[in-house]
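Researcher: Here's a chain I'd like modeled. Treat it as a single chain, no partners, no ligands.
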Amino acid sequence: MTDAAEPAILVRGLTKRYGPLTAVDGLELQVAAGETLALLGPNGAGKTTTVECCEGYRVPDAGTVRVLGLDPRRDARRLRPRVGLMLQEGGVYPMARPHEVLRLFAAFYADPLDADELLERVGLTDTRRTRFRDLSGGQKQRLSLALALVGRPEVVFLDEPTAGLDPAARRRTWEHIGELRAAGVTVVLTTHLLDEAEQLADRVAIMDRGQLVALGTPDELTHGQRARLSFTARPDLDLADLAAAVGAVVEQPRPGRYVVHAANDPQLVARLTAWLATHDIALGELQAGKRSLEEVFLRLTAEEDRA
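Model: Modeled as a single isolated chain. Structure tokens:
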């Protein structure tokens, strides 16, 4: 096992180019031992290239990558038994059956998990003799997860682990990831499901155009120092007068729905309701709270900022 004081994954100045395209641009990132990190970003942000460099499938053009203190390419033979990979495309022979594939993979490790027990854990016991090509998309995903876990890895890379799963199977996968976290396994999770990242990750890293644009716990990214009030009222409010009264930016994203963005001031609600009362305006729904991770993500990766 790696020293808990040392990062399980260390990325320094990682740069990867494909011709004129810079997919990853000087990335700096550390993942602590036992941490679950969610790596988010729009398509083309550089997530997959980053993970493939950590897995040893891509050669960086600049910078260094270390996983459990080892170079993923130079030290591949020493590193592979300690790392589990779950890919979107499983790479399994179409005629193979789940129990055959899992037993084959188990044979590569000195102390693997029991193949039959693992099939039961991921809910594939009833399909153990079904050919891979005949499995549903969700069943293939669950088999891919089992293949990633069979060697008792210290670090696991999970690429869209719940893609194509129904809600029940998705929840079971979340439980498996929670079990890995409890066992001290380092998990790097790439996902487009922001609620998944918020539920599972110790920290969230958001990439855009090859660079890291945000890093922190879900709570840190969504709370910040800004308050957000959302309320409903009649659709003809004087936004300029209201903004001046509450001392904040007020938007109307759709008729009758208003959003107030302000410094985190406990008097904000009082000023808002006082203004409404002065103008004899009935207040409908009122919501106060933190920004969602989706709001943070969309703000940081907005299309209009990508030109």
